[in-house]
Amino acid sequence: MKKACDVLVVGAGSVGLTLANLLGQQGIDVLVVEREHELVDYPRAVGIDDEALRAMQTAGLVEDVLPHTIPDQKIYMINGAGAILSEVDPTTREFGWPRRNGFVQPLVDRVLLAGLDRFPDTAVHFGTEVVDLTEDAGGVVAALADGGTVRARYVVAAEGGSSPTRKRLGISFEGETRPTDGIVIDVANDPIGTPHAVFGGDPARSYASIALPHGIRRWEFTLFEHEGEADVEDDAFVFGLLAAHVPDPSRLDIIRRRVYRHHARVAGRFRHGRIFLAGDAAHVMPVVGGQGWNSGIRDAFNLGWKLAAVVKGLADDALLDTYETERLGHVTQMVAVSLQMAKEMTDHDPEKAAERDRVAASRTPEEREAQKRQAFKPQPKFDRGVVVHTPLPVSKSLPVRDVPRLAGSIFPQPTATDADGVEMLLDDATGQGWRVLTWNNDPTAFLSAASRAALDRFGARLVQVVPKAQLPWAGKRATAGVTVVGDLGGEASLQAWFDARPVGAVVLRPDHVIAAECLTQELDDVVTRVLEAACAV
Predict the structure, then answer these.
(1) Which residues contact 226 (CB under 8 A, 6 or more apart)?
(2) At what angle do helices 292-311 and 321-346 cross, to 10 degrees?
(3) Low-confidence residues of the chain, pLDDT below 70?
(4) Cα(424)–Cα(404) distance, rounded to whole angstroms?
(5) Distance separating alpha carbons of residues 412 and 157, to the nearest angstrom
(6) Residue 68 Cα to chain centre, angstroms
């Protein structure tokens, strides 16, 4: 095992493995250590969203992940009588992928682990436990249980909600833990056979029934205070839970059963010197919202490009402060939303459940539609960090409209074409990483030599988007170093996006967040400000 690396990742779960893949793509020397002797195979997350799939696309692994998903999986929230309280069925492809997907996490973890084989400077060691971390001016020394040590420039602790690293550093983990546990039961040869998920807000005992890929069905039941591990191992008890769901529980092909604890907590800080917390080590939330796993992938996506930039000497260490600045607020919102949903669906007070049902029945069609498209899910929107907010442009050439500024939010990913007219998702057509994207203009006409040189150091791509009809002309006349992309038009196109905005250019970060938006003539100054925000050196 290597004795030194650029980044030491503690924990070979989904978050640690995703981060290692993103760093490996950048040629960063990464070591992942995991105290268990193999990948964890017990029941965990069951939902992967469009942002996470886009991260998998960025990591070059999405085609291997997709076979383990159920795209566009509906969720029905029902009461104890089976009446539908709300339906979640977002059909958008705003970011290129279905917004809600069922998935089998252990199989996706295997994809992430295998993905590391692509990178000669990335290694994974199982059965390796970190027992202490000592930081000095140049890095961190990790002491291992076997007496060995590893020296790293930075350490990312992604070892789960009980994170020894977080506890060792004395970082708070404020929030709440539900007084009762839950039981997860995974069954092969799905006896229900329907593709959707159901969350049952039954005051007698709340539950979830979720279809998963490859013929797997998951049930989750709330346990009461007098119930615990011993009951979970009792077939009669488990069959009793399932009796209202299948004709004959004794015939089920049970894969596994496990007790888990409901938490809703957020770490007091995500950075301690050269050590970072990510995933469940930084935040945990109820499963009802389906965002715990996805929030961890957002952590890896946000932190990955920043660590790579600092390790490569492209940015100052201060860039890493923006990880907490950007992620802490959003994940706190996500925990709050998930907790509220969990309380509504798992409250066993009959009067409160009846009031919930009355509120649901009184929703307007507009409110039901908002629930259906998952409007309750907070989208990342950064006011601070690596983001430049420009004033609303004043121009007689622009209609006056009350539209939100989108710097700090995620840029859409419609289908576009490459210079040859081949259709593909936008990120594949432009290439990954930093991008300066202009509508119908050659971006080099608006960038100084100094700005272009600075962008080159970051590996930024200059992208000229034109209507597909213009490709034969624009492609032949493209400036060297400029990628020409064809827009297909329509409601979800880039032309529609720019039509609705008072801007003609955007600067996109490697995690697809809009670092800045501006009129094309302002591009050079805005690029300079973005690089300053990125602590470029």
Answers:
(1) none
(2) 180
(3) 43, 289
(4) 28
(5) 31
(6) 17
Find all residues with CB under 8 Å of 277, minimum gap 6, and list them.
156, 157, 158, 163, 165, 166, 171, 267, 269, 270, 271
Residue pair 9/158 in contact by the 8 Å Cβ criterion: yes
Q: Give residue 194's pLDDT.
A: 96
> How confident is the model over 172-202, as pLDDT tens digits?
999 988 777 899 999 999 999 999 999 999 9
Q: In what order do the strands lie in the sheet with 47-49?
A: 47-49, 100-103, 69-71
Q: At 336, list the tokens.
A: 């709050």
Q: How many CA atoms lie within 13 A of 503 on its CB side?
A: 24
Nearest CA among 372, 371, 270, 380 for reference residue 334: 380
First to last CA, the chain: 33
Strand pairing report for 482-487 and 415-417: antiparallel
What pTM, to 2 d.p., does this model score?
Answer: 0.96
What DSSP line would sit under 131-195, residue for residue? Answer: EEEEEETTEEEEEETTS-EEEEEEEEE-S-TT-HHHHHTT--EEEEEEEEEEEEEEEES-SS--S
Residue found under tokens 């660590």: 307
Encode burial over 68-83: b for 16+ CB neighbours within 10 A, e otherwise: bbbebbbbbbbbbeee
pLDDT at 240: 96
